[in-house]
Design goal:
alpha/beta, 7-stranded mixed β-sheet, 5-stranded antiparallel β-sheet
C-alpha cells in the first residue's frame, strides 16, 4: 500500500470542530498513515496563536522567574479542546509537567515548541495513533541546521508500526537541547517524515486551496496553480508566496516525493501539486506565477575595468559578510555590480560601515544607495522556450508608467526579477498578471 504523510497547519488545529474535520480527512483515506501537526492557530480575528502565547510565557519567565499567569491561557485552550473532543486523558497532569519543565529549562525555543508537543499528544489520542515525540527523532546540528540523515534514520525506525502522530517544528541539537525551525517549520518536519517513510505523497493541509498565480490582495481572484515544479516553488516561496515553507522541499526533492497543498476547510478542492522538475508537465502557460517582496536597499557600485580586477567581488562581499548581512541578489555588468539587501538585515550603522569599507577597499568610481525598492519575480518554465517573454514583461510595466530600477534574470531562465519603487509594487504585479493571464 502507498503511504501518505499529512501535515496539518495551525488553522487546522485551532479548535475542536476543525479537528473533527481533520479526523474525517485522515480516516477517509487508508493511505494517510502519518500525521504531523502544528500548534493551534487563531480561532477568529483578534485571537492569539498558541505559539505566540508561549512566546509571551517566555517573556514573563525572564521578567519574573515564573510564567504561570501567561501559561494559563495555553492551559485553557488545550483543556477546552480535549473536553470538547471527549478525550479520556489527564491533560492537566501533562500541562503541569510542561509548565514545570518550561520554568526549569528557561529556553525560548523549548517554550515555543510546547504548542506542537501538546497538540501532538491530543491529536494522537483523538485519532487513536501512536505518539512519537520529535525530541526522539528530529536532530539539529550545533549550527542550527537539520541533521537530515540522522533524522531520517530515527524517524524510519520509530515509524515501523506504520501509523503515528509526530509534532512538527522542533527537535534536539547535539547536546540534547530542544531546537526549533523558523516559523512555519512544521512544513519541514512533515517533509522529513515523508522522506523517512518513503511516502508516495506529502500532503500539506492548510486554510487555502493551494497556490494562486499572484497575491489575491492585489489581483481579484487570480488564477489557481494546479501544478508546479520544485524549482518554481522555491522561486515563488522565496519571493513571498508563503503557502509552504521554502525549505520544506529539500527533504522530499531527492526522493522525488510530490507535495500536495490541500484545504482542510474545502477538502474536495483540487489544490496544488508540486512535483519533481523532471516529472513536471507544462501547463501551457508561459508564466506560472508572480510574487514579490518589498523594502530592499540597493548598493550600486561602478568601476572601470572591474571585470579585470582579481578579487573585486570577493572583497566587496567580505565587507558585507563581516557585518553579518545576507545579500539577496547581485546583478552585474562589465563595470557595475549591485547588492540587494533586505532592509531587515541592515541598520544605519551597518550600512555606513559597508559603504566606507567599499570605498576604502575597492575605490569605486561611483557608489550610491537606493532605498525602498521592491523585488518582483515572474516565474515559469514556459518562459525559457517562449520568444518575446521579456519584451511582453517590460512592455506591460512600461504601459503602467512604472520605472524599472534594476533587472536580474536567472541563468536557468526560470525567472525574471525586476526592482521597482515600493509605491509601485502592487501596480507592477497587476500589470504583469494582466499581460500573461489576461486579467
Amino acid at each position: 500500500m502507498s503511504v501518505k504523510v499529512c501535515k496539518f497547519g495551525g488553522t487546522s488545529m485551532a479548535d475542536a470542530n476543525i479537528i473533527r474535520s481533520v479526523k474525517s480527512i485522515v480516516e477517509s483515506d487508508p493511505e494517510r498513515r502519518f500525521v504531523v501537526v502544528s500548534a493551534p492557530g487563531k480561532r477568529f480575528s483578534g485571537d492569539k496563536k498558541i505559539t505566540d502565547l508561549l512566546f509571551a510565557c517566555h517573556k514573563e519567565l525572564v521578567k519574573s522567574g515564573s510564567c504561570r499567569k501567561s501559561f494559563s491561557a495555553v492551559r485553557s485552550r488545550f483543556t477546552d479542546i480535549a473536553a470538547q473532543l471527549g478525550l479520556n486523558i489527564d491533560l492537566n497532569a501533562v500541562l503541569d509537567a510542561t509548565l514545570e519543565r518550561i520554568e526549569r529549562e528557561k529556553s525560548e525555543q523549548f517554550t515555543a515548541s510546547r504548542g506542537e508537543y501538546l497538540c501532538g499528544l491530543v491529536i494522537a489520542e483523538y485519532l487513536g495513533m501512536p505518539f512519537i515525540d520529535a525530541e526522539d527523532v528530529i536532530f539539529f546540528n550545533d549550527n542550527g541546521t537539520l541533521n537530515a540523515e540522522k533524522s531520517y534514520r530515527a524517524v524510519a525506525a520509530a515509524c515501523r508500526e506504520g501509523r503515528a502522530v509526530v509534532p512538527g517544528f522542533y527537535g534536539v541539537d547535539e547536546n540534547g537541547k530542544v531546537r526549533t525551525f523558523s516559523r512555519g517549520g512544521s512544513d519541514i518536519s512533515g517533509a522529513v517524515v515523508a522522506r523517512a517513510v518513503n511516502a508516495s505523497l506529502y500532503e500539506n493541509w492548510t486554510d487555502v486551496s493551494g497556490f494562486l498565480a499572484c497575491d489575491p490582495h492585489i489581483v481579484d481572484s487570480p488564477a489557481p496553480i494546479e501544478a508546479l515544479s520544485y524549482k518554481e516553488l522555491r522561486e515563488l516561496s522565496y519571493m513571498g508566496a508563503n503557502v509552504l515553507h521554502a525549505e520544506s522541499i529539500f527533504p522530499v526533492r531527492k526522493a522525488n516525493i510530490p507535495i500536495q497543498i490541500k484545504n482542510t476547510f474545502r477538502p474536495d478542492d483540487v489544490g496544488t501539486t508540486i512535483v519533481p522538475t523532471s516529472r513536471y508537465m507544462p501547463s501551457g502557460r508561459i508564466v506560472t506565477g508572480i510574487a514579490g517582496k518589498k523594502s530592499f536597499t540597493v548598493i550600486y557600485i561602478e568601476k572601470s575595468l572591474m571585470n579585470s580586477e582579481i578579487g573585486f567581488v570577493r572583497k566587496v562581499l567580505s565587507l558585507v559578510e563581516a557585518e553579518n548581512v545576507s545579500v539577496e541578489h547581485i546583478p552585474t555588468g562589465i563595470d557595475t555590480m549591485s547588492l540587494l539587501i533586505e532592509d531587515g538585515e541592515l541598520t544605519e550603522l551597518k550600512l555606513g560601515r559597508i559603504l566606507e569599507g567599499i570605498k576604502c577597499e575597492v575605490e569605486p568610481d561611483i557608489i550610491r544607495v537606493m532605498e525602498n525598492i521592491a523585488l518582483i519575480a515572474t516565474v515559469g518554465h514556459g518562459m525559457s522556450s517562449s520568444v518575446g517573454t521579456c519584451a511582453r514583461l517590460f512592455k506591460a510595466i512600461a504601459e503602467a508608467e512604472i520605472s524599472i530600477k534594476l533587472i536580474d534574470m536567472g541563468s536557468s531562465e526560470l525567472n525574471i526579477v525586476v526592482g521597482v519603487k515600493n509605491e509601485d509594487y502592487g501596480r507592477c504585479i497587476k500589470s504583469i498578471y494582466n499581460e500573461f493571464f489576461g486579467g
